[in-house]
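cron nightly-structures :: item 1 of 1
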Amino acid sequence: MLRETKLMFIRSMQHTLRNPIWLFLNLFQPLLYLFLFMPLLKGLGGVPGLPEGRTVEVFIPGLLVMLALFGSAFVGFGLVDEIRTGVIERLLVTPINRTAIMLGRILKDVVVLLVQCSLITLFALPFGLRVNIGGFLISLLLYAIIAIAMASMSYAFALVFKSEDTLASTLNTIALPISLLSGIMLPLALAPLWLRNLAKINPLSYAVNASRALFSGYLWNGDITIGFIIIGLLAIITFCWSVRSLNKMAA
């Protein structure tokens, strides 16, 4: 299975590198937030849980979670195209492991995301971002798990719907509320009580808290453990769902 996963990863990566414009387009929205929105937050003070209320340590970790969310949530459109053109059907009649088909694609999405997160972090350094190296490296693992969860969900929906229109409306309906209820832009500690209570049912809010703790160097913060556990469980569930959906298509 490892060999077949490697083959699927190489195939997916080669397809992505043939269209590098998509890599830069995925960076466009986070860069807009970085250059146009973050300067508006310089007057924000007294942010709970951060030294000296430094807004850059609040904003950039949330921005990277947003990149992991939206950069991976819409990868299913490529799978819909391959379903329509018969590529997936041809793969399914081969003896290749079904899990390897999904895992190879998802690993490609993870690698692309980690490159983008590293670039955004580099772009943020001139804005005064102070990065804890250990925390940043651990945060990359967190973003990778988020990418696995969101990409698996996107592929599962693509296999179920097989339609770009239905897939787009479904993903937008899911991605927008969980992003707004995760405290990506500002910490949820600044939100009203009813909004904080509502955010407790959102798995991504725990990932945002973990990301900010890691960037601040609080490596033993309980939010990190909770974030990894919740996002890890979500990734396992959605990945199993995507493989099951592929098996149903092959049946």
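cron nightly-structures :: done
The mean pLDDT is 88.
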